[in-house]
Amino acid sequence: MPTMSPVKYRLVVFGKPEATEQVRDFLAKSLGIHPLDALRLTAHMPGILPGLFDAQTCKKVLDGFFELKIPAEARSADTFPDLSRPRSVQDLTLTGGGINIRDNVRKQTLHFLPWNRIGLIAAGRIQVPDTVIDYDPPGITRNVVYGVRRMLGGGSLNRKERTVRSPGFPRGEAILWRREPHGVFRLSEDKLRYDILGEHRAETAAENFPRLIKWLAVGAETAFLTDSTRAYIGETGTEPEIFPDEESLIESATMQLLKSWYRQDREKAGS
Asked: Any residues with CB less than 8 A from the CB of 12 and at least 6 apart, and which?
């Protein structure tokens, strides 16, 4: 008879330590790691500790965090929401039962997301870097420009003067997480087809994207909505958060989802 593999856990810290050195020393001793590595972990709290841990190690760490008054939990790896490596979506349709994600050419359904299995909608804005172009006036225009500069005592245009910078505007992006079977999907404001909006379709993707997210949030009424998603659909009166990259959006969404589960578990335990 094959032996069962021991259950592994992820450790999640929900609070920011006040006594940095004390937490560093505790982690170094409990996890058997170098103090510098323990200091890096402490500096990134709240957050998810890297790696998988057995039940005994988790108990030791959680007991220590309890003494240090830092909220934390261990969650089994098989129930942990992995939002990494999302699949890009360009075309979708909405039905009474859920979302059809379709092939952009053949219009065949690739994935189906039942409304009641969508566990998370995380929308935000991703910072787009400025576009920098080197400009060199062509032909006679260049000769005139250089001639005028020489007459005024200047030389050729330097690189800074030949550079044209176009500011990058944050683009909308959203992550959808489907439970059972697990699936993660990415919606990008500038990659989507908005035919689905019909008469509600606006002129620009920047206007259409929030409308689509609101439709998804209404359909997936049991899904967890991040703070930035709620701002996107007008529930908070604030602007959606701007993230430096997609990884930051995913990290923020994961922590918010885990924290909501943590609160629910504590409420159940207290009832």
From this structure: 47, 48, 49, 72, 73, 74, 75, 255, 258, 262
pLDDT digit string, tens, across residues 54-79: 999 999 999 999 999 999 999 999 99
Query: Could you give the CA distance from residue 134 to residue 28 in angstroms, rounded to a whole number?
Result: 51
Q: What is the DSSP letter of 46?
A: S
- How far apart (Å, rounded) are the C-alpha atoms in residues 244 and 45? 19
Domain ranges of the chain: 9-79, 87-129+169-270, 132-166
- Going by C-alpha positions, the residue among 39, 4, 37 that lies closest to residue 20 is 39
Q: What CATH number was assigned to the domain covering residues 87-129+169-270?
A: 2.30.29
CA distance 207 to 93: 18
Q: Exposed/middle/buried for 141, CB within 10 Å: 0-12, 13-18, 19+?
A: exposed
State the alpha helices, DSSP H only, in 44-96: 55-67
Q: Which helix (H) or strand (E) holds 227?
A: helix 227-232
**b vs e for 106-124, b when ≥16 Cβ sit within 10 Å of the residue's Cβ?**
eeeeebebebebbbbbbbb
Please, where are the H alpha helices in 111-220? 139-151, 205-219
pTM: 0.82
Banded pLDDT at 104 (limits 50, 70, 90): confident
How much of the chain, in percent, has pLDDT values that exceed 90? 75
Q: Judge contact between 178 and 185, C-beta under 8 A.
A: yes
Beta bridge partners of 242: 125
Amino acid symbol at 200: H
The CATH architecture to which 9-79 belongs is 2-Layer Sandwich (3.30)
